[in-house]
Specification:
- 49% of the residues lie in helices and 18% in strands.
- By secondary structure, the chain is of the alpha+beta class.
- The strands form five sheets. A four-stranded mixed β-sheet has the order 2-3-1-4, covered by helices on one side.
- Helix 2 crosses helix 5 (211-233), helix 2 (78-105) packs antiparallel against helix 8 and helix 2 runs antiparallel to helix 9.
Length: 339
């Protein structure tokens, strides 16, 4: 999954660089040494490196202190450099969009108007102990009718408000409608007691579409996700909803167990996340580099090497703090999950 995300993103940078007349010395999947050269074509080495947690396109002249050769990055016009930088996030978006379309035609896409199913039931938690099972279709929680994905948030809040109390849960199992009354486990989170039953609301039924229907649904899904991501990033919800490598690994594991189509769908969603997050105006990310290039275009002259390096150092520090905070949240989430 990581390799697919990396290749799609870096392919955008690579193709744009080639189209703009820049030399690309290496297209790498992974980090670290040694490198294994798969092939070399038109002056570009295509390599695999031992740490499969990313990748890169090596274009000469990208260091702020290096003017580089005539076919290098810094020797090109500001517009060409902006195109190359923007091409990575754009490729990530296109990859996700095309994945939605292909899924829609083949396996289908989740129907947002269908009730969710229960997934990832924890055998030590009330939902499983009181008889609920993976695959049950969720119809009602207390007085709340769960008709589609729009009702999931309200359903979770209903359960959270009932620590140590019975929660009426109505599900459909096969052709039968059944009612259960598990007692929500009281869990302390951020100094507050909340109720948990121990399941994840999964997707409802999947619907196949025609090619045109899939294009329409893929467009709707892509736009909706981007709007949601941007809104979340610039809101207070980011502190609660952000997830790091541990959360991604856990979610990917659950998706893989649910089936290949779920893993492919998750890959598309992560690709959209990758596109949006890379466009944040933080130096070292694509969005931060675009911001510096925009300043250069407005000024009509390049920023000094010292200024560029200071901006990149600041960006690395910000990313470092974000990584630490997100990892701490992931670990805290695991600890609460185990309680």
């Amino acid at each position: 999954m990581i390799i697919a995300l990396v290749v799609a993103h870096e392919l955008g940078h690579f193709l744009a660089a080639k189209a703009c007349g820049m030399r690309v010395d290496e297209f790498a999947v992974g980090f670290g040494n040694p490198k294994w050269v798969v092939t070399k074509r038109h002056g570009t080495e295509y390599t695999i490196r031992p740490i499969p947690a990313g990748g890169f396109v090596r274009i000469p002249g990208m260091d702020p202190s290096e003017e580089g050769p005539a076919d290098g990055f810094n020797a090109q016009s500001v517009w060409k450099r902006m195109i190359v930088i923007f091409a990575g996030p754009f490729a990530s978006f296109v990859f996700a969009y095309l994945t939605f379309i292909v899924l829609g035609v083949t396996a289908g896409l989740p129907n947002p108007d269908a009730p969710p199913t229960l997934q990832q039931l924890n055998k030590s938690m009330p939902a499983y102990q009181y008889g609920l099972r993976d695959g049950d279709t969720l119809l009602q929680v207390q007085d709340l009718k769960v008709k589609g994905s729009d009702d999931v948030k309200a359903m979770i809040e209903t359960i959270m408000k009932r620590p140590g109390q019975p929660v009426k849960v109505v599900v459909k199992r096969g052709d039968r409608t059944q009612t259960f009354n598990p007692v929500a486990k009281a869990v302390k989170v951020d100094g507050k007691m909340i109720g948990r039953l121990g399941f994840v609301p999964g997707d409802g039924e999947w619907t196949k579409y025609s090619l045109m229907g899939s294009i329409s649904r893929g467009t709707e899904e892509s736009v909706s996700m981007v709007v949601k991501l941007v809104t979340t990033v610039f809101s207070k919800r980011i502190a609660k909803e952000a997830g790091g490598p541990i959360a991604i690994l856990s979610t990917a594991n659950s998706a893989a167990q649910a089936g290949l189509k779920y893993l492919i769908l998750l890959t598309a969603l992560l690709s959209l996340n990758f596109a949006v997050m890379n466009l944040l105006p933080i130096p070292v990310l694509d969005g931060g580099l675009l911001m510096l290039l925009t300043v250069e275009a407005v000024r009509g002259r390049r920023l000094s090497t010292k200024t560029q390096q200071a901006a990149l150092t600041f960006g690395l520090a910000v990313i470092g703090v974000i990584i630490v905070l997100v990892m701490a949240k992931d670990i805290s989430g695991l600890l609460h999950l185990g309680k």
